[in-house]
Every structure is written in C-alpha cells, then in structure tokens.
Design brief:
Elements: E1 3-7, H1 16-24, E2 31-35, H2 42-49, E3 54-60, H3 68-78, H4 81-84, E4 88-94, H5 104-116, E5 120-127, H6 138-156, H7 163-170, H8 177-188, H9 194-202
Parallel strand pairs: 1-2, 1-3, 3-4, 4-5
Helix pairs in contact: 6-7
Bound molecules: flavin mononucleotide.
Flavin mononucleotide binds near residues 9, 11, 15, 16 and 102.
C-alpha cells in the first residue's frame, strides 16, 4: 500500500475531512485511513507509517489553527524524524469560513514543519467553506470533488499540483465588497446564523452562546 491518510478532524468518521479524503482517494487502488482523534493510537500510527511512501494530512481549521490532536501528532512525529525523512507528503486544510486568508498562517507552519521533518512536500491545499460538505448532495460538491481528485491523481503520479486547480480550490483570499455587503444584509435580517444556531440548539448550548466565563 502506498498512501496513508491522517484524518485530523475531532469528528473523526462522518467528518467533512472524510468527505474530502474520499474525493482525493478516487484514483488510489489501495490506501489506509487513520483518525487522529484516537490519541491513544498515535504511537501505532507512527509505527504503521513506516510501511507507506506517501502521506496525506486532512484536517479542519479550528480557532485559526490546527485541532489539538493534529499538533500532538506532529509532536510525536518530531520525536521520530527518521521514520518520516524523505516521505512524500501533502496537507489539506479546510475551514468553515469562506475566505482562504484564515488558513494562511497554518499554511506557512505546514511548509516549515515538512521542511524540518525533511519530508518531500507536494504542497498545502486550502479549501474554504467546507462545513456543509458532509450534508450536501454529491451534485452540489461535484466540481470541488473533481478538483480534489485531480490533486490526488497528481500526488499518486508524483507530479506537481497544477497551480490553476489549487488556486481554484482556494478561491479569493478575502470576500469581494459585494459579498461582504450581502453578508451584512443576511446578518441584519438574522439569516447568517441559522445553521450555527441550529447546531447550538442541537447540542443544548444555545442559551450559553454569549457566555464569557473569563470576564471579570
Ligand atoms: C470548535 C470549532 C472551532 C472552529 N474554528 C474555525 C476557525 O477558526 N475558522 C474557520 O474558518 N472555521 C472554524 N471552524 C469550522 C470548521 O473548520 C468546519 O466546520 C470544518 O468543516 C469542520 O470539518 P470536520 O467535519 O472535518 O471536522 C471551527 C469549528 C469548530 C467546531
């Protein structure tokens, strides 16, 4: 088997990260996916990764950074540099917000991390606006899925990722003035929070949404 996929979502299975990974894997005959939310398994994952030539990390942006379990795994990797030296790697960061700018600091970190680990980095792919992927009908995500599959193919064939495909997945760094205006209008009429409020209600946390436990 040539590819090991590290899903860094705290949701694990049934995550948007899993959906994105399934697009990436379209052309791969064999691969192994592991879930970094199973923190007790990290040591096993490191030992298993010895057998693989290529690694894909796919995870969401959490509070402008990577989920804690991803950082923890990277720290474990750093202790076993020999295992990862010369491995081919790529990273997919995706985010709830629709602007790529939110992922830019983490992108820099990942290039630096891959460098420090002496891994052969094929690139960091940014995909904003991912929260709905697992809920959308496949038709609605078909174009994104195609582009991610193309990136997966390039990785499989040891070719550089086409910059046009990468850029198109990433989209604009920030929203246009018109998009910002539309968002303001949606916020004013209370429509921008419908989905997030439904999530808060589902988790019985709606009443706590303005809590500020560290305020004096
Ligand atoms: C606790 C938490 C923090 C988050 N922080 C950010 C953030 O800082 N920026 C952002 O764009 N999205 C943020 N998101 C949204 C996730 O990146 C987005 O929902 C993603 O699709 C989740 O992917 P997953 O299903 O693979 O976990 C956050 C979500 C949660 C639950």
């Amino acid at each position: 088997m040539s590819l090991m996929v590290f899903n860094g979502s705290p949701r694990g299975v049934n995550s948007n990260s899993d959906v994105i990974a399934s697009w990436f894997l379209k052309g791969f005959e064999e691969s192994k996916t592991v879930y970094l939310n199973k923190v007790k398994q990290h040591e096993t994952y490191i030992n298993e990764s010895i057998e693989f030539e290529k690694l894909l990390f796919v995870f969401p942006l959490y509070v402008d950074g990577m989920p804690g379990q991803v950082k923890y795994f990277f720290e474990q990797m750093n202790k076993q540099k020999k295992v990862f030296k010369n491995k081919e790697v790529t990273f997919i960061i995706h985010s709830g917000f629709s602007e790529a700018i939110h992922s830019k600091n983490l992108e820099k970190y990942l290039y630096r991390f891959a460098d420090l680990m002496s891994m052969k980095n094929y690139g960091v792919v940014i995909i904003p606006g991912s929260e709905g992927f697992r809920l959308m009908p496949p038709k609605m995500t078909a174009k994104k899925a195609e582009k991610v599959a193309e990136i997966g193919d390039m990785f499989r064939l040891n070719k550089p990722f086409p910059s046009a495909v990468k850029e198109s997945l990433e989209g604009p760094l920030v929203q246009s003035k018109l998009q910002r205006l539309l968002f303001k209008i949606l916020s004013l009429v209370g429509l921008s929070n419908v989905y997030w409020n439904s999530q808060l209600k589902k988790n019985n946390a709606f009443k706590n949404r303005f809590d500020a436990p560290y305020e004096k």
